Amino acid sequence: MNILIFIIILAVLILVHEFGHFIVAKKNGIRVDEFGIGFPPKLYGKKHGETEYTVNAIPFGGFVRIFGENPDEESTNGPDNARSFVNKPKLVQVAVLSAGVFFNLLFAWLLITTGFLVGMPSSASEQLSLGPVSNAHLTVVEVVKDSPAFVAGIKTGDKIISASYSEEMAVNVTSESFQQFVDKHGEKKIAVSLQRGSEEKIVMVTPIKGIVGGRSVIGVGMDMVGVMRLPLHRALYEGGKLTLIYTGETFKGLYNLLADAFRGKGDMSAVSGPVGIVKIVGDASQLGLTYLISLTAIISINLAVINILPIPALDGGRVFFILIETIKRSPVKVKTANLAHSIGFIILIGLILAVTFHDIWTIFVK
Fold first, then answer.
1. Better pLDDT: 304 or 123
2. Cβ of 365: how many Cβ atoms within 10 Å?
3. Which of 18, 34, 69, 238 is catalytic?
4. Tens digit of pLDDT for each residue in 320-341?
């Protein structure tokens, strides 16, 4: 089920991305030969006007085939060359190439706005600055790896309902009262009642002492998290603001990751491939629809940021070649561009395979 949800999310996000290229190309008079859902082999196709709309067998997103994006003799000098991508002004070419990134960011804004309209999981500390937070519960927002909580199976997003030891029980706990209960019982095994989505469970946890100022801890970060609903105008504003914040943080995280890699301090655990994302999607789907909406928005932003990087085979790489052509006032040789994009594609596939192997090793083997 988790794999199916991941495939659906990925398909939707790639289709949104490709629709951006498609609609901007159409609006600028560029011929679009095919808009495909999924990847070949083709299962079904129907031509409407000059564009063939196809449904394909491999269900991982889609593609758009724009006349002249990969220049050849026909698109450069053929009878329909005026409608070729390669013969359009440079600003139009940049707009077409950047449209996928813009549509992914726009879609993330729409998703976050929808989350605020239906009820976004939010910290009670945000109540004064944004709006009222209802139905707040003590929620696990971080689990330290190999901590007592990690070993007991406590997960990020779990709601802590109560804690008990022998005949003593603490209910309706806050972060302060829960910490006091843990401190009181030191390194004794306590029962923690959790709610994970619609499921309720009890786990046994033995706190450890002396890591944080001599206090007893189980290795979690906690916050009072509830549901925040905003009216449409506020939801649009806060959704846009969060989209910009998430985008900036994604660029910052990517920069730090690359900087650490160049310094020889790269950490593969900071990156998730398809297998890792499937697990994350599964965890989010168990917590509820709004968590899944938020995660989809974050993945959409990540897709936009990755695609805008000046790497051959990505949209940013193609924009970079247009910038080179503008500076040198002559086109880059077709063979050179195609070779660079092919090499870039091979490197990207290699990185994906490496991250996927790391995910499999971490999740299933280690």
1. 304
2. 7
3. 18
4. 888 988 888 887 777 777 788 7
How far is Cα 123 from Cα 139, in angstroms, rounded to an integer? 9
CB 297 within 8 A of CB 246: yes
Domain edge (last residue) among 228, 263, 285? 228
**DSSP letters along 268-320, please?**
GGG---HHHHHHHHHHHHHH-HHHHHHHHHHHHHHHHHHHHSS-TTSHHHHHH
Write down which residue in 202, 228, 254 finishes a domain: 228
Q: What percent of the chain has pLDDT over 70?
A: 84
Higher pLDDT among residues 349 and 226, named by residue: 226
Instruction: Fill in the amino acid letter for 263.
Output: R
**DSSP per-residue codes, 69-111:** SS--HHHHHSTTGGG-GGGS-HHHHHHHHHHHHHHHHHHHHHH
Please tell me the distance from the alpha carbon of residue 54 to that of residue 42, in angstroms, as a whole number.
7
State pLDDT tens for residues 218-269: 888 888 888 888 899 999 999 999 999 999 988 888 787 777 767 766 555 5
Q: How many CB atoms lie within 10 A of CB 97?
A: 27
Q: What's the rounded Cα separation, in Å, for the pair 3 and 48?
A: 33
Domain, as residue range, for 175? 133-228
Task: Domain count for the chain, please give it.
Answer: 2
Residue 18 designated active-site:
yes
Tell me how far apart the alpha carbons of residues 105 and 303 are, in angstroms, rounded to a whole number. 9
DSSP state of 16: H
Residues 157 and 195 in one domain: yes
Residue at token pair 């504003």: 237
324 close to 332: Cβ distance less than 8 angstroms: yes
User: Per residue in 262-271, pLDDT tens?
Assistant: 776 655 555 5
Neighbours of 42 (CB within 10 A): 14
Q: Which amino acid is present at 43?
A: L
Tokens of 181: 């209960």
262 in a structural domain: no
Paired tokens of 241: 């603001």
Tens of pLDDT, residue by residue over 153-170, are: 998 888 999 998 887 888
